[in-house]
Specification:
Blueprint lengths: L3 H7 L6 E4 L3 E5 L7 E7 L14 H17 L6 E4 L15 E5 L9
Antiparallel strand pairs: 1-2, 2-3, 3-5, 4-5
The structure holds adenosine monophosphate (AMP) and zinc ion.
Length: 112
């Protein structure tokens, strides 16, 4: 499968990593939308939030367990926003489930 985030998870495409273990990887977004912008992905290929099910939801729970540690490691100390774009109307450009962690500054009150 030609999935850029699977390749980042495999290490065949480089990334600026914040955190990695056997199940997930967190790395800085190439095109940051805030002072700190990190992406967290499961190594397992899941296309988007719409494909979360009873078989793979453990990976998502695990991501959310690790997000506080990842945010701290990225230098975020005063709160953050978690975003996951899904599908065409959600403007998802990379079809491998990922969570944007943005922070490091006061964010807009508008979300959409
Ligand atoms: P989305 O629009 O929610 O699918 O977000 C995809 C994000 O991936 C965008 O913010 C891109 O800047 C980011 N991105 C794409 N390719 C890479 C890459 N190789 N390394 C880091 N971030 C990337
Ligand atoms: Zn993938």
């Amino acid at each position: 499968m030609d999935c850029i985030f699977c390749k980042i998870a495999e290490g065949t495409i480089p990334s600026n990593k914040v955190y990695e273990d056997e199940r997930i990887i967190a790395f800085y977004d190439l095109n940051p939308q805030a002072k700190v912008h990190v992406l967290v992905i499961p190594k397992l290929h899941i296309a988007c939030a719409d494909e979360i099910n009873a078989d793979n939801s453990g990976e998502i729970a695990y991501i959310f367990e690790k997000i506080p540690q990842i945010a701290r490691k990225a230098g975020i100390t005063n709160g953050y926003r978690i975003i996951s774009n899904c599908g065409d109307d959600g403007c998802q450009s990379v079809k491998h489930l990922h969570f944007h962690i943005i922070g490091g500054e006061k964010l807009s009150e508008k979300m959409a």
